[in-house]
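#onboarding

Welcome to the new folks! Below is a worked example of what a typical request in this channel looks like: someone posts a single protein sequence, and someone else replies with the predicted structure as tokens. Don't worry about understanding the tokens yet, we'll cover that in week two.

Example request:
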Amino acid sequence: MTNTERTLLNLLHEDAKLTDEQLAAMLGKSEKEIHDTIADLEAAGILIGYGAVINPEATENDSVSALIEVKITPQRDRGFDAIARTIYSFPEVKACYLMSGAFDLMVIVEGDNIRQVGQFVSEKLSALDNVLSCATHFILKRYKQDGRLLTKENDEHRQAVTP
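Example response:
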């Protein structure tokens, strides 16, 4: 991967609304070079999508998100990939990561309410043959996501609690 490609990806990650013209000016390239480079990155499966970062607390959306730690038994000759594929295929799953440490997969799910997330965990996720255990952590508040602050900084200072 070239330095131009890396820089272009970083710029698009920060602001996917930048135009080819703006990117060309920032990188000292022609608009056609930028357009062709983006097309090449998309074709290679490196640049797989564009998205907005939305603050769920600023919307009318009352959905619930949870981070679930999952311990699994890897499958012979297929490792963790086959069970991860099964898990990330559920529509409730927004992200799925193979992890090092105390658990194997970190799964982020969304549901309309706590009951729906609980049903997903009890009826779908924990019911899978290779799943040994799950630990569900509900997300109470988001402060920062994808490198962007979701809360406004304010000058209010809470009084320190002292014994």
